[in-house]
Specification:
With 241 residues, the chain is an alpha/beta fold. It contains seven helices and ten strands. The strands form two sheets. It has a seven-stranded parallel sheet with strand order 1-10-9-6-2-3-5, sandwiched between helices. It has a three-stranded antiparallel sheet with strand order 4-8-7, covered by helices on one side. α7 (199-207) links the parallel β9 (188-193) and β10. It is globular. The protein binds 2-phosphoglycolic acid.
């Protein structure tokens, strides 16, 4: 894993955008795996300003809540519309998010994997990281070879996301997520983390033992991972001066 440390959140966001925009310029038909959450907001702002054309790009989001209509204010579709789709020339039919309203969730996950496979797989996947080490909604204990699948959200994750929903009860209990197996098949992985609250999980991810109880440690087995962190999130890394 390569670790790049930036003075602040703006720096890591710009770097993530530069890397992805550069990839799109090199290959206008790039296939991107994309995250939601607070951390990538700056990345999307910078990416929308990059001038990169998304005309030929295909995007696949990491995850979506089960049971929220697409138009719900907290759906990840709404997040992507606000942070990317409304600002770039990405054709709507090339933007993919698992459908958490599908009547058969297992079938929806198989369809999503098949669509991704038909697109040629992910050239790059951008990840945030949960305080418990989740990537996408792969919670502690998730299998490292799993494809896209339905999951129960960890209590810690629901508590962390309650701030967006107004109350814990309003946070969905289930989601669809790309599996760690799907993520590890990407050619390149960018992991973004910002702030001192993430310092401990960043240290465990980069320097800790591989463990299924810390899903992000699976990334140590991938040959092309870049961890982009600000000074606060890098604060506990022994390898960073
Ligand atoms: P955050 O979420 O960026 O809102 O901290 C990260 C995650 O849970 O993956």
């Amino acid at each position: 894993m390569r670790v790049e440390v930036f003075d602040d959140y703006a720096g890591l966001s710009q770097r993530a955008s530069d890397l992805v925009a550069g990839l799109i310029r090199t290959n206008p038909a790039s296939v991107l795996g994309l995250p939601t959450g607070s951390t990538p907001e700056g990345f999307y702002t910078a990416l929308c300003r990059s001038g990169a054309s998304f005309q030929g790009v295909r995007t696949f989001n990491l995850d979506e809540y089960v049971g929220l209509p697409r138009e719900h204010a907290q759906s990840y579709y709404t997040f992507m519309k606000q942070h990317l789709y409304d600002h770039v020339d990405l054709p709507p039919e090339q933007a993919h998010i698992p459908n958490g309203m599908a009547p058969d969730l297992e079938a929806e996950c198989r369809r999503y994997e098949e669509t991704l496979r038909a697109a040629g797989g992910l050239d790059v996947v951008v990840l945030g990281i949960g305080l418990n080490g989740h990537i996408g909604f792969n919670e502690p204990g998730a299998a490292w070879d799993a494809p896209t699948h339905p999951v129960m959200l960890a209590q810690a994750t629901r508590e962390a996301n309650a701030r967006f929903f107004g109350s814990l009860e309003a946070v969905p209990t289930r989601a669809l997520t790309m599996g760690i197996g799907t993520i590890l098949r990407a050619h390149r992985i960018l992991l973004l983390a910002s702030g001192s609250a993430k310092a401990e999980i960043v240290k465990r991810t980069v320097e800790g033992a591989l463990s299924i109880s810390v899903p992000a440690t699976a990334l140590q087995s991938h040959p092309n991972v870049t961890v982009l962190v600000d000074r606060a999130a890098a604060g506990m890394l022994s390898s960073v001066a």
